[in-house]
Automatic annotation (TrEMBL), chain A:
SUPFAM superfamilies recorded: Calcium ATPase, transduction domain A, Calcium ATPase, transmembrane domain M, HAD-like, HMA, heavy metal-associated domain
Main subcellular location: membrane
Top-rank lineage group of the source organism: Bacteria
Similarity section: Belongs to the cation transport ATPase (P-type) (TC 3.A.3) family. Type IB subfamily.
Protein name per UniProt: Heavy metal translocating P-type ATPase
TrEMBL record, chain B:
Keywords: Membrane, Transmembrane, Transmembrane helix
Record has Membrane as a keyword: yes
Segments traversing the membrane: 6-26
Keyword Transmembrane: yes
InterPro entries found in the cross-reference section: Cyt_oxidase_maturation_cbb3 (IPR004714)
Matching Pfam families: FixS
Encoding gene per record: ccoS
Protein origin, superkingdom: Bacteria
Protein name: Cbb3-type cytochrome oxidase assembly protein CcoS
Amino acid sequence: MEQTTCFHCGDDCNAAIILYDEKNFCCNGCKTVYEIFSENDLTCYYDLQASPGAIPKEIQGKYDFLSQDNIIEKLTEFNDGNTQIATLYIPHIHCSSCIWILENLNKLNPNISSSQVNFGKKNIRVTYNPEKTSLKDVVLLLSTIGYEPYISLDDFKTGQQNVNRSLIYKLGIAGFAFGNVMFLSFPEYFQVGEFWLEQYKHLFRWLMFVFSLPVVFYSGADYFISAYKGLRSKLLNIDVPIALGIAVLFLRSTAEIIFDLGSGFFDSLTGLVFFLLLGKFFQQKTYSFLSFERDYKSYFPIAVTIISSEGIETPIQVYDIKKGDRLLIRNEELIPVDGILINGKARIDYSFVTGESETVSKISGDKLFAGGKQTSGVIEMEAIKSVEQSYLTQLWSNDVFSKNKDDGFTTLTNKISKKFTIAVLSIAVIATTFWLFVDASKAMNVFTAVLIIACPCAIALSAPFTFGNLLRIFGKLKFYVKNASVIEQLASINTIIFDKTGTITSNKKSTATYDGLALNPSEEILLKNTLRGSNHPLSRTLYDILDEHNIISLNHFEEHLGKGIEATHNDNHIKIGSASFVGAGETSILNTQVHISTNNEYKGKYTFYNSYRKGLSKLFNKLKKQYDLVILSGDNEGEFENLKKLLPSKTKLIFNQKPDDKLDYIKYHQTEGAKILMIGDGLNDAGALAQSNVGIALSENVNVFSPACDAILDASKFNQLDKFISASKSAIKIIKWSFVLSFVYNIIGLYFAVTGQLAPVIAAILMPLSSISIVIFTTIATNLLGRKLE
Amino acid sequence: MSVIYILLSISIIVAVVFFIAFLTAVRKGQFDDSYTPSVRMLFDDELVKEQPKPTIKIKKTN
């Protein structure tokens, strides 16, 4: 059978196909979005990209809190009587159609004056007239067309966020000055002793001096600050020789033009700073749509509905929840505080907290933990703690989250720079003493020349360009690394710790076994066709596992939320769902089961098992040669035997670990000298990810969820992990080779400097030459490395 | 040869004008998002195409 795909969202039309305007739709939601667009002449949406849409979700009542003034004030960046500007994060933004439709919002609501998309950050900046429409209307409009914004507690801060653009300014100024100084310094290189040049060279020189002032004191300021900080903590970091080089270049050049000794090194000076900043710019993180610093705030809602004693429902800010408050949690809403279930049937999805995708049923009187998501109907609960005191949020009071990981780590560049600085200073001193005895007039010249030529521009550029390029290559392969030093740390690890659920197992349960009375062919057809109509995750999984059958139209179909589904075809009646719904005795097995009965006769059950990610044991076998492997699981030991068979015998398997236990385990082994790579997925791993040397969050969908970490790995690339680690190691080799290359340039330069023949023109050639050749070398080498990865 | 003063000042003024243009561009946030404008630029055509709606319909029936 050929699958028909939905014109709007591109999903397979499994259930009844809705035909409208000669196009197929998978559900009424998609059809409605199409109707809205076609009524407003916005069908270009579908021309730019095929099936770009998303199914709009049920949102009734979800955004009631947006009508509260104090919440609006926190979410808008600009607000006066008739203009409001709000920036909303929309995870679904993914193609040019999205940009087009979102920037034409004013066609759908004329009170929106403008909307501007930032594709990289996946957000939209909407300007609207609050007298005629409201933030809530805007959000509802976006939701109805399938672009539901993601509003979390993290957005709860007043005013505009300051974007730090200082690096762009610094780079621009250095580039501007570099270009102009080059032009002004050229005449003296080519024409020596020419009459008119003699007349005007002083003017040229002083102009160069003026151009170099902002470069030294603004663009290069960071190097002086960093060098000063390094020296104060008795560290010879790479910025010390750089700062020394910049300072000497500037002072000697100024002295030269004041006493009319020469034209100075202003072109080398500005070029040096420009190249250094270019390296910094290149290394800057490139994934603006990912956040590596997320804590629970990014997942929590801003507001929930509170029920007063008189039964009135009002939205309330999450921070204002007090012990004893009665809260209303709707379908698909997150539980913000620990509490007790009072009313309603709860099916809680704790995947945010534990990584476990299976929902848990709760009945009234049961305790609910913050971070769970209600998945069936409306419930009422009573808060027993405030937000900050809840079980999940308390994890963040641990001081690992306030520590900066980079502090205790010496980068390769800084290790080299220590020896380098000492060597350069001793060469300078020895050469100066030598000249003091031979020709004292040249001594000062030689001293400064050594410091100028030895300025480790090329060394300082090696790491930024290698790592920066590798970050980009990794990003293309769906491995998003926070910054360059993470790659360096990744190359030095010796222990790898995996979380179990959601990390080495996949969230989609894809194996199930049937147990019970055999189903006859007509029952099988009925079963498959009934599942076809349901959107419950378990139904979808089971539907995919079962054999293909003919499509029949059901006489009756009904879905009971949180219980199961029933359907009738001719005389046959089928019930699929939980044991109590189907009429089987309660079974107490840990694994998930789906029970089936036909015509009120219990038939049997499908039992789902953990399915491990593809290539898991292959990956472990590759890694075991070089690393200690550990599995730290929060689960019970149910899967122990299974894992033992699958993984190399050396692998340590530890079960029943609470979030704090994982953190302590890592801390303990770090004191014994282990360099640990932690791979996890849930918020329960957040502490372990923060404590480890490198914490990688595995994510099925990088846009949606990941705890604070150093890198985010797309789940589909999990079996490539060993390649990423070995690529990081090769990157270190590339850097070492480029160090060798830059030492060669330094030795050539030092020859001129020590012998007292360093003319500005030599410096002006040598410095850009060394920098550019390093950039070319590292870029080509990392690209070759990247090709091997693919 | 004092014309060089005029030439120099003109060249510096031109340079400074571009420099100021750069500063304002950064300040207005033109460097914050380097991807979206490249796509947005292509949209103006799509909007124009939309007005003669019947032509699209004719295309589809053929």
